[in-house]
Amino acid sequence: MGTDAPRTRRHGALSFLTGLLITVLVLAVTAGALGWWTVQRSFPTTDGRIEVPGLSAAVTVYRDDAGIPQLVAETDHDLFFAQGYVHAQDRFWEMDFRRHVTSGRLAELFGESQVSTDAFIRTLDWRGIAEQEFNLLDDASRAYYEAYAEGVNAYLAERSGADLALEYAVLALQNPGYSPEPWTPVDSIAWLKAMAWDLRSNLGDEIDRALLATALPPEEVARLHPDFAWGAKPTIVDGVSAAPAAAATTPLPTGEGAPSDAAAADVATYAASLGSLRAVLDGIPELLGPEGGDLGSNSWVVSGALTESGMPLLANDPHLGPAMPSIWTQMGLHCAELRDECGFDVAGYTFSGLPGVVIGHNDRIAWGFTNLGPDVADLFVERLQGDSYELDGAMVPLTIREETIEVAGGEPVTVKARSTARGPLVSDVGSDFAAVAEGFPSTSGAPAGEYAVSLQWTALTPGTTAQAVFAMNRARDWSGFRQAAALFDVPAQNLVYADVDGNIGYQAPGTVPIRGSGDGTVPLAGWTSANGWSGTVPFDQLPSAFNPERGYVVTANNPVSANGPMLTRDWDYGYRAAAIERLLDERIADGAKLTADDLAGIQLDTSDSNAAALLPVIAELELDGDAARGARLLASWDGRADADSAEAAYFAVFWRSLLDDMFRTLPDATRPEGGDRWFTVVAGLLDEPDSRWWTDKEHGVAGRDQMLAHALETAWNEASDRLGGNAETWRWGRLHTLTLTNQSFGKSGILPIEWLFNRGPYELGGGSAIVNAIGWDATAGYQVDWVPSMRMIVDLADLDASRWVNLTGASGHAFHPHYDDQAALWQHGDSRAWPFTLAAVQDAADERLELRPTGAD
Q1: Are strands 759-763 and 737-740 parallel, antiparallel or unpaired?
Q2: What 3-state DSSP class applies to 816?
Q3: Which residues are within 8 A (CB) of 582 and not within 5 positions of it... i.e. 6 or more apart?
Q4: How far apart (Å, rounded) are the C-alpha atoms in residues 349 and 832?
């Protein structure tokens, strides 16, 4: 007995542990099964047959092996009804989240933390402007929006809660009472305001100049915001051309003297307030990506005279902030037969929540977009007395609205939104804006009093963009395309064009203000109408080109033309445009005819113009130690920022170190992010080796050569710490990674939730102001901030031979097979076949869903 007792106890303990382990495993399996059921329950039906009330005839939804839907319908109503239904199938949470952003209702979802964001959006009144635009629609466009909303709501009638999306299951943990309301046409139109906000041109530069002016003399502010390199870099329409006549630039005018020395402390406060203002502006949800020099796009079109097929080729890759799921969703909208009742045969990239195709082609024409970037927003400092503002010596009543913000888990918050005739008083939204206005008297020499900051922005005037997409989708030729472009007022885009008759073209559309004073580069005094907008540039005066002699058009956010109306002073600096033109010209000079593969290769080009400027100077330095080792590494580099390049990794670290050392004394909000503007600034300083900017007292560095040597040494140490002591194993992609982040829950700070929705990291090459514009912000690190959000090449010789790829996938449902299945293709520069004709769509179909009217045979 005595010898058996320990064995019995051990056996009992073992039995207990085994039972506990089995219990844990059973619970884990049960939890896993429950979790997988919760995840999968939102996956839509994509094969078979569904009866859907509201249709007049059957609609067929073909999906290829990437889940990309192509819709075939008998009427326009049914086509857009089905588009709404399919968008809701794939992306309804994204749609619901977006409409809460654009209507200033995020606090309804996520609570008190979002009240300040909602207050800003309510002050700008995106939703109110969208309502006005809906009322201005022509009858046909209104019918399309209404049909789309009917389709969305037909899907909502079938599902709710976690059956719609996994996000609703997560939201229920903190906001259990939430249920999405029916979709409306205004929900769709309001999305256009988010597009316009994210592509709002130079408002950040305007604040940046004002902030720099508190610390630097005017000539140094101008040095840090250099003009475009006219005569050296190409414009879109004219090629390389001389600079336009300079407009008179106007600092913030008061007519009442400059700030005194006694105001130095207030200048510091004002500078801090300006920095906060910029941070608040940039903090508004950036559904298309953060504002910055890399927020642009590439597009170009090549005439058939230069192609192997004898017909045009068109390429486009918009550069936007990465998101999970992708900003875009691919789709085809096809009428079974083109006739009066059904006039669409179009495919391309759509926004969930918005009917129609934004970028793509129909059976006759193709088009691409890049951001034109005109200066369409200005800040004004206003003099107030209570609820009135001064204008030309008279006091004018402010327009006042009260907005109530509902807060999940809290009490409603009431916001008073005040506006002048120019626009809303953004200084009413939080203390940061108010501090800018309060600091104005001491920094400008103006008399003491009550001041505010207003924003005038073209998107706050009702426009016609809401119907432009349909007009473009149905355009049949150059004339119809330009008529559609004339409706595309905000955000203004560069439009490239090609058609099956062999024509190519370019059109700049958009509402662009004409200013009575200044050039829009700095805030102006609002109490005189002399500083106001006197009108807008007529469409017929905006640049355009049809079948240009050189046989191609390249747009990469560079200036359109040195001639014509003044659109902005803050263009992209032209590095990408120059590289694309160089690569095209090299192929043309060799006598080779261009193919779609050639255009795809250009989209992936990683040549770094910044390296080309700095490497020859580095090669001439007398160096020792780690700086010399760094220079030797760079000596054999071809200047390409490929993911597997050790040199590209080291050069990026060097560039970030150099910017930090050179410009450490600038106000924080103006520190270099490292993009094309800073390429131009530093390149200009290379010929001034004794400039003050080459001095860093903190490190005892003076002069260009010492500064470069110090940055090389610092970079070698940092690269070794980050990537290891053996430089042969360094890779740019190990530093330059992309994590695809869900816009709503991806930055929750709760790792299990982030794991559910985020994907990555992906190692990438490319960089800022490079054709393969996978950009990064030197103030934050090396991680990817901007990407080619999609890539497409349209072949007008055979539309079914076109190619496309999305950043993520067709589905917005986490763990769905098509949630991220295009990400690896995109990462490696590959693309997918793009079937268009009905025969090609049917041949590529992996699934076929028939949406049928209720009660149909």
Answers
A1: antiparallel
A2: coil
A3: none
A4: 14
Amino acid at 778: A
- Predicted confidence (pLDDT) at residue 704 exceeds the cutoff of 80: yes
State whether the Cα torsion 792-797-798-801 is positive or negative. negative
Q: Which helix (H) or strand (E) segment is 775 a member of?
A: strand 775-776
Cα-based distances in Å from 453 to 98, 285, 434, 438, 695? 27, 21, 8, 10, 37
DSSP 149-204: HHHHHHHHTT--GGGT-HHHHHHTTT-TT--PPPP-HHHHHHHHHHHHHHT-TTHH
Beta bridge partners of residue 635, listed in sequence order: none
Mean pLDDT of the chain: 89
In angstroms, the CA 513 to CA 521 distance is: 13
**Contact of 402 with 414, CB cutoff 8 Å:** yes
Look at residue 419 and give its three-state secondary structure: strand
Distance CA 511, CA 487 (A): 9
pLDDT at position 246 is: 59
How far apart CA 382 and CA 300 sit, in angstroms, is 43
Given this model, what pLDDT does residue 484 score? 98
Rounded Cα–Cα distance for residues 326 and 740 (Å): 9
Residue with tokens 């039906």: 45
pLDDT per residue over 495-536, tens digit each? 999 999 999 999 999 999 999 888 888 788 899 999 989 999
Asked whether 659 and 675 are in contact (CB, 8 A), the reply is no
Instruction: In whole angstroms, give the CA distance from residue 344 to residue 348.
Output: 13
What count of other Cβ atoms lies within 10 Å of the Cβ of residue 475? 22
CA 707 to CA 623: how far, in whole Å? 12
Residue 197 CA to residue 208 CA, distance in Å, equals 18
Which residues neighbour 665 within 8 Å (Cβ) at sequence distance 6 or greater? 215
pLDDT in tens, 238-293: 999 888 865 544 444 333 333 333 334 444 544 555 555 566 566 665 555 555 55
Cα→Cα distances 437→266, 440, 530, Å:
12, 5, 20
Burial of 743 by CB count in 10 Å (0-12 exposed, 13-18 middle, 19+ buried)? buried
Distance separating alpha carbons of residues 677 and 659, to the nearest angstrom: 12
Q: What is the tens place of the pLDDT at every residue in 816-832?
A: 999 999 999 999 999 99
Q: Give the dihedral of Cα atoms 186, 191, 192, 194; nearest 10 deg.
A: 140
Cα 411 from Cα 405, distance rounded (Å)? 9
Closest to 824 (Cα-Cα) out of 766, 758, 733, 762: 762
